[in-house]
Write a sequence for this structure.
């Protein structure tokens, strides 16, 4: 059984996240969606997504490498989604930070697997969803 983790703030969960999750489910037996709080964004304003059978959802705070080290189960991969080249640059930078932190702490870090979202979803982002939802509430 191969278990992967899909970390992010997912604020809010949207079609792009679901697309990445669906693609990862074709490869991994179990996926843990790690819902983190971004200290720059503050408190979560959206609920954790409703999850299907072989996918679970866990909230966490802190560093990803610390969470991976603290669980008593093998994690085979870290799942990340890409929409464009900028996402790749950002994600690679985050991957390098995680690698450095893991090495510094003497922790094992599973490989990062990138999944490209469907081309029909590349314009969708959580920040755009938040702006649209805020503007919709203001229209009422």
């Amino acid at each position: 059984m191969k278990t992967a983790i899909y970390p992010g703030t997912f604020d809010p969960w949207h079609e792009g996240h679901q697309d990445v999750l669906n693609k990862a489910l074709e490869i991994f037996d179990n996926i843990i969606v790690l819902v983190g709080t971004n200290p720059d964004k503050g408190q979560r304003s959206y609920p954790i997504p409703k999850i299907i059978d072989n996918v679970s959802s866990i909230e966490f705070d802190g560093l990803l490498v610390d969470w991976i080290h603290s669980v008593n189960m093998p994690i085979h991969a870290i799942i990340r989604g890409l929409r464009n080249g900028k996402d790749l640059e950002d994600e690679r930078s985050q991957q390098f930070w995680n690698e450095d932190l893991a090495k510094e702490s003497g922790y094992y870090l599973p490989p990062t697997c990138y999944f490209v979202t469907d081309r029909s979803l590349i314009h969708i982002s959580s920040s755009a969803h938040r702006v649209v939802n805020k503007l919709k509430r203001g229209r009422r």
The domain at 3-139 is CATH 3.40.50.620 (Rossmann fold). DSSP finds four helices and five strands in the chain.
